[in-house]
Amino acid sequence: MRQNNVKVAVTGGIGSGKSAVCSILVEEGYAVISCDEVYSELLKERQFIEKLAEEFGADIIDPDGSLNRAVLSQKAFGDKSVLERLNSITHPAIMQRAFEKAEGEAIAFFEVPLLFESRLERLFNEVFVVLRNFEERIKAVCERSGISRGEVEKRIESQYSYENSDFAKYYVIHNSSNLDYLKCEVLKAVQKIKEKYC
Q1: Cα distance between residue 84 and residue 118, in whole Å
Q2: Strands across the sheet containing 107-111
Q3: For 25-56, how does the pLDDT look when each residue is reduced to its tens digit (9 = 90+)?
Q4: pLDDT digits (tens, 9 = 90+) for 105-117
Q5: Residue 91 to residue 39: CA distance in whole angstroms
Q6: First-to-last CA distance in the chain?
Q7: Fewer CB atoms < 10 Å away: N or C end of the chain?
């Protein structure tokens, strides 16, 4: 077997089943790194917080030295240029840390919620796109988050349009039935990755 560090992104819209796919990969013994978890780690580190404060103001730091995420979010999501500046700092840091965690793995998977929105797909060897019926996505998010259908629809509309995109060059995983079906879909895609790289 060739020693590769193959990086595979796992992405999809809200409620598509990215986490379920990643759970299957973990059960199968693969390294899976969540970019959301990496970001949470970084937001607790003094050096990273200070870097953000230099850019966005000292008021994003609470008296105890921790990051006030509410203040940072208010600044970023109220102004597109500020959000772009925030992303230009956070995204490279997240990916660097995530890739460090995957060092030494022949194949590593990365759960990246905003892959296409952030144009991060070029950093990966392959991409798994998890697709699910629109109604099923709404139902899943309502049950998981306890929010209204209208709120879920707004979130979906604000995201990348998975329904109207061409994913011919990626591995599409259809989350359209039960967990056993999803597992078969995931394992088929993994086998193709292994045949290509290992």
Answers
A1: 10
A2: 31-34, 107-111, 6-12, 126-131, 171-174
A3: 999 999 999 999 999 999 999 999 999 999 99
A4: 999 999 998 899 8
A5: 9
A6: 5
A7: N
The tokens of 5 are what?
A: 């560090």
Phi and psi (nearest 5°) for 91? -60, -50
- Contact (CB, 8 A) for 163 and 122: no
Closest CA relative to residue 116, chosen from 1, 13, 6: 13
Please state the separation of Cα 37 from the chain's center in Å.
Answer: 9
- 6-12 and 31-34 as β-strands: parallel, antiparallel, unpaired? unpaired
- Asked whether 16 and 175 are in contact (CB, 8 A), the reply is yes
One DSSP character per residue, the chain reads -----EEEEEEE-TTS-HHHHHHHHHHTT-EEEEHHHHHHHHTT-HHHHHHHHHHH-GGGB-TTS-B-HHHHHHHHHT-HHHHHHHHHHHHHHHHHHHHHHTTT-SEEEEE-TTTTTTT-GGGSSEEEEEE--HHHHHHHHHHHH---HHHHHHHHHHS--STT---TTSEEEE--S-HHHHHHHHHHHHHHHHHHH-
Distance CA 161, CA 150 (A): 17
Question: Measured between alpha carbons, how far is residue 117 from residues 84, 89, 160 in Å?
Answer: 12, 16, 6
